[in-house]
Known about the structure:
The protein is α+β, with helices and mostly antiparallel strands. The chain is 42% helix and 19% strand. The chain is built from twelve helices and nine strands. The chain has a seven-stranded mixed β-sheet with strand order 1-4-5-9-8-7-6. It has a two-stranded antiparallel ribbon with strand order 2-3. The relative contact order is 0.10. 3,4-dihydroxyphenylalanine binds next to strand 8 and strand 9.
Amino acid sequence: xxxxxxxxxxxxxxxxxxxxxxxxxxxxxxxxxxxxxxxxxxxxxxxxxxxxxxxxxxxxxxxxxxxxxxxxxxxxxxxxxxxxxxxxxxxxxxxxxxxxxxxxxxxxxxxxxxxxxxxxxxxxxxxxxxxxxxxxxxxxxxxxxxxxxxxxxxxxxxxxxxxxxxxxxxxxxxxxxxxxxxxxxxxxxxxxxxxxxxxxxxxxxxxxxxxxxxxxxxxxxxxxxxxxxxxxxxxxxxxxxxxxxxxxxxxxxxxxxxxxxxxxxxxxxxxxxxxxxxxxxxxxxxxxxxxxxxxxxxxxxxxxxxxxxxxxxxxxxxxxxxxxxxxxxxxxxxxxxxxxx
Length: 341
Ligand code: DAH
C-alpha cells in the first residue's frame, strides 16, 4: 500500500506540473482526488490493514492528498499568470505608430458664399428671414401677380403636392416677399435664402433643387436708382471693386419695370470665353420695381409706397465666386472637391 501511495504521488505531481490548460488540470484533480479517483480507491483498502499499520498509512495518505492539493493550487496560479502575460502581450500599445490626423470640418462653398452675402446685406440694414419650402400656390404665384396660364404654373415645371394645385414645393423664394410684408408690414428691407424646386434635368447648370436668395425693399420714395446702387455695391463687395455690371430689360410678373443684372465675365474679363459662352457677360440675377398689384395684394398702397426686389441663384453665385465649372460638384459632396475650399 505504501508503494501504491508513493506511485500515485510521483505520477500525479509529475502530471500536474506538466499540465498546460485549466480543463486538463481539473481532469487530473478528478482523476486523483475525486470520489472515484485513484487516491480514494487506495483509502478504501484501509479496512484490510492491521490496526498497527493503519495510523501510519492514514497519515501517509493524508500527506499525499495535501501534497496533490497544494500542487494543483500552485499549477493553477502558474496558469493564471501565463494567461495574463499572453493577454498583455496581445494588447500591447505601440507608441511609435504615427497618430491618426483629426480632419477638421469646414463650411460648404455654397454656404460660405451665402454667409458672405448675408453679412453684406446685414451691414446694409437688411433683415434675414426664413420661409417655408412647402408653399401655397397663392403665395408662390397668385399674390405675385403670376397669370393663371403662366408656364411656371404647369405641372411639368413645378412639383405639386396636392391634386388641386394649391400646395407645392416653392419654385422660387419670391413668395417670401409676400410673407415678409404680411408679417412685418412696410417699410421693410429683407433678404431670405433657401431651397427651391423645379422639374429640371440635371446638367452642368441645372438641378431639380437649388438655392436662391431673395431681397425686398419697400419704403416711401424708393426708386430704380436705389436698386442699381445697392446691387452694384453688393456685387463689388463680392467680386471686387472693379467689377463691371449691366442691367438689361426683362419681364417678371411681380416687377414693373423688370431687369436682369449681368456681371462682366470673371474668367475672360469681357473678351468672350466658354464660361460666358462668348458673351463677355454672365447673367447673375433678376430684379425690378415691385409691381403695384403685388403691393396691393399685401394691403400696401402703391401710391404711397414703392419698392424693389431681386432674386439670384446661390449655386451660380458660388460657381462664379470660387471659379467652379460644373454645378453638379456643388451637390455631389465629394470630399476631394470640398477639401479645396
Ligand atoms: N423669382 C425669379 C426667378 O426665380 C427671380 C426674381 C426676379 C426675383 C425678379 C425677384 C425679382 O425678386 O424682382 O426666376
